[in-house]
Amino acid sequence: MSEPIRILHIVGAMYPGGMENFIMNLYEKIDRNRFQFDVVVHMRKKDDYVERIRQLGGRVYELPRLTKRPVQNLVGLFRIVRRNRYRLVIRHTSNALAAPQLLAARLAGAHTVCHSHNETDPQKLLHGIGKLLMKAAAMERLACSEKAGRWMYGRQSFQVIHNAIDIRKFAYRPEAARRIRDEFHLGGARVYGHIANFISSKNHLYLLKIYKEIAGLDRDARFFCLGDGSLRAEIEAEIRRLGLEDKVILTGVRKDAADFMSCFDVLVFPSIFEGLPLTLIEAQAAGLPCLISDTITGDVVVTENLVRFESIEKPPGVWAQAAVRMGLDADRGCQYERIAAAGYDIEMLAKWYEQYVIKTLGGSASAAI
């Protein structure tokens, strides 16, 4: 039996998040007898996906961050690609600062692909400089949405690849909702939730103000924030300042996010910017009403009557009133057909990805690396 094709993915860290979940969802479903994912990371975190990658047969390399030690990063990447004879290297990124890495991989002999996972980024100046290199560095261009593609590639052509999920995994399950309610002693309280890493773009401080306003409308309501990150201490301080210590639960990273989506009555998602958030596709699969910021692309809406947009320029009270109304009456039926038809079924994507790799490498699925 021939060796599988090994595809090298480059990402900041394999800690649960949008682009990381996308990679892992795909890796779990792809035919690993024919294709294997290896990963370059720039940092390790507790509860990341590294051990799972190794269990599935992947290799993990760690390099210093490009912005801190550029020579070591680029030389190290060049050597990894050259020594292991990787023929396909994919850089998952939210900005064009990753272009030098793709250029190093291309010089080492790989076919290079950039996959854009966001439609903006705070480092706009450096992103603009990186875009000049991206034209030479990326031989092919992918994006999670049209806006993410335009942000990364400008007028260059690109292909939109939806952030697909295991749709049935997220279907509403009453027993899962009961388990979460029992674990956190929620009783019959209405539950509002948020799932994201604790980073500035997710707008947690504004989210907490919305929670405060909801608490004024529904004194029995409870609130969740699933995730973790560098802003945790700041978020905890704001919870104390708002007097929400007995209302808001910070769970940290959970491996049972699907169960929480069955438990939540409303998902509140006031991001400052996004690409195309996988969490919102998962929530719609669960039939979960979603109140989201109008900075998020309309492409994220793949169902009917579940998603409402609101401006983060409006007072938190406006969000609170909308969230309370949305939580009163929701049909929690599975939205499989609509979501699959929109291109978000991981089973279908895995088959497409296999063909994409074969086509990119010249039509041979048995060419070992």
Question: Can you put this structure into words, describing what you see?
Answer:
- The chain is α/β, with parallel strands linked by helices.
- The protein folds into two domains: 5-164 and 345-360, Rossmann fold (3-Layer(aba) Sandwich), CATH 3.40.50.2000; 167-341, Rossmann fold.
- Helix content is 39%, strand content 17%.
- It contains 14 helices and 13 strands.
- The strands form two sheets. The chain has a seven-stranded parallel β-sheet, sandwiched between helices.
- Helix 7 (174-183) packs across helix 10 and helix 8 packs across helix 12 (316-326).
- The radius of gyration is 21 Å and the shape is globular.
Summarize the structure.
The chain has 369 residues and is an alpha/beta fold. 39% of the residues lie in helices and 17% in strands. The longest helix has 15 residues, at 70-84.
Topology:
Layout: E1 5-10, H1 18-29, E2 35-41, H2 50-55, E3 60-62, H3 70-84, E4 88-93, H4 99-107, E5 111-116, H5 124-137, E6 140-143, H6 146-153, E7 159-160, H7 174-183, E8 191-195, H8 204-217, E9 222-226, H9 232-241, E10 248-252, H10 257-263, E11 266-269, H11 278-285, E12 290-293, E13 307-310, H12 316-326, H13 336-341, H14 346-360
Parallel strand pairs: 1-2, 1-4, 2-3, 4-5, 5-6, 6-7, 8-9, 8-11, 9-10, 11-12, 12-13
Instruction: Estimate the helix proportion, in percent.
Output: 25-40%
Number of domains: 2
Q: Beta fraction of the residues? A: 15-25%
Poorly predicted residue ranges: 364-369
Biggest β-sheet: strands ordered side by side in the sheet: 3-2-1-4-5-6-7
CATH superfamily of the largest domain: Glycogen Phosphorylase B
CATH class of the largest domain: Alpha Beta
- Count up the helices: 14
Shape descriptor: globular
CATH architecture of the largest domain: 3-Layer(aba) Sandwich
CATH topology of the largest domain: Rossmann fold
**Distance linking N and C termini:** 14 Å
Rg is 21 Å
